[in-house]
Specification:
311 residues, alpha/beta, Rossmann fold, 2 domains, binds ligand A2R
Length: 311
């Protein structure tokens, strides 16, 4: 059986299917037969450390659990003829739902209201303070791809006015902004859903957050690297930015302590796609890609940087 290197965890279902076709070695165990490894199963958080990839002379394919693959050097892989796959589409609806939940939690003060009810504060001290309506908002989506479009679709139910910023204008009826700061100035909510990596590193900077403003809400469900986290903390602290609702952070699982004490901030532990159903679909696709590659050298969902190798 071919040898597969497992980086990070996999589900029991994935293991059962993979064990039938591969001999599995775990990076966490420290030793593996480097010359024999032809396949890797990893995830978007752990990726493939560059020294690990460089030390596997016969690596042919990397299957990544997650749609974001910024932790994998796809250029180095492509140069060596290594196919890399990810799990697009199967998580669009779930990440969009998480985004809507963050927006509702922030605008409707949902978590504080729940605590008010649960703690007995309602009975002791009266009604909770009024919150902000989540309906009829101007919403700017940074990255109108598969997930961005799913978010826009769900926002329709809230009668949102959709704006977007991407590098290339899309064939949609929403308002396009070629400049991100200009979009931030035009909207009340900025939702980040681009890939991570060098091209988006800290593109939500102090200027963008100042433009979003003291009544503005920043929602990040993409990668922590997309937002300048230190600048965000400062902007929230001195009121230049009104609110933040965050599922992702620069140095996960670390969250800046300052954010944890702010009442105008909602924090989640990177659970955008983390439901039983969606994670099962993602795990299924990770294994399907590996088995398809074993069968005929092709894969189902290559990342664009290695798609030309899928012949
Ligand atoms: O820029 P375009 O026209 O390639 O549009 C893509 C946009 N995008 C950017 N927008 C502004 N500045 C950039 N430097 C930039 N780079 C990419 O992000 C496109 O509209 C969107 C990405 O869409 P998809 O490739 O369909 O990705 P998907 O499946 O929506 O997932 C987005 C990300 C993942 O990479 C994970 O990091 C996260 O969501 O879960």
């Amino acid at each position: 059986m071919p040898d597969l290197l497992q980086i990070g965890g996999i589900t029991d279902t994935m293991r059962d299917r993979l064990e039938a076709e591969f001999t599995i070695h775990k990076l966490a165990d420290g030793t593996y037969p480097a010359d024999a490894i032809t396949h890797i199963a990893t995830n978007g958080h752990d990726g493939v450390p560059s020294d690990v990839m460089a030390g596997l002379p016969n690596l042919k394919m990397v299957s990544c659990y997650g749609v974001g693959y910024d932790a994998i050097d796809t250029k180095a892989a492509a140069d060596r003829g290594i196919l890399v796959t990810h799990t697009p589409d199967v998580l669009n609806a779930e990440v969009a739902s998480t985004t809507i939940l963050l927006m509702l939690a922030s605008f409707r003060n949902f978590l504080a209201d729940e605590a008010h009810a649960r703690s007995g504060n309602w009975e002791a001290n009266g009604n909770a303070p009024l919150s902000r309506s989540a309906d009829n908002r101007k919403v700017g989506i940074l990255g109108l791809g598969r997930i961005g479009q799913a978010i826009a679709d769900k926002l329709e139910a809230f009668n949102a006015e959709i704006h977007y910023h991407t590098r290339t204008k899309k064939d949609v009826d929403y308002t396009y902004h070629a400049n991100l700061t200009d979009m931030a100035a035009a909207v009340e909510v900025l939702i980040c859903i681009t890939p991570g990596g060098p091209s988006t590193n800290k593109i939500v900077n102090a200027d963008v957050m100042n433009a979003l403003g003291s009544d503005g809400t920043l929602i990040n469900v993409s990668r922590g690297s997309v937002v300048d986290e230190a600048a965000m903390v400062a902007a929230l602290q001195d009121g230049r930015l009104g609110y933040a609702a965050l599922d992702v952070f620069e140095a996960e699982p670390k969250i800046p302590d300052a954010l944890k004490t702010m009442s105008n901030v909602v924090l989640l532990p990177h659970v955008g796609s983390a439901t039983v159903e969606t994670r099962a679909a993602m795990g299924g696709l990770v294994v399907d890609n590996l088995l398809e590659h074993l069968k005929n050298g092709k894969v189902l969902t290559p990342v664009p940087e290695t798609a030309h190798l899928n012949g």
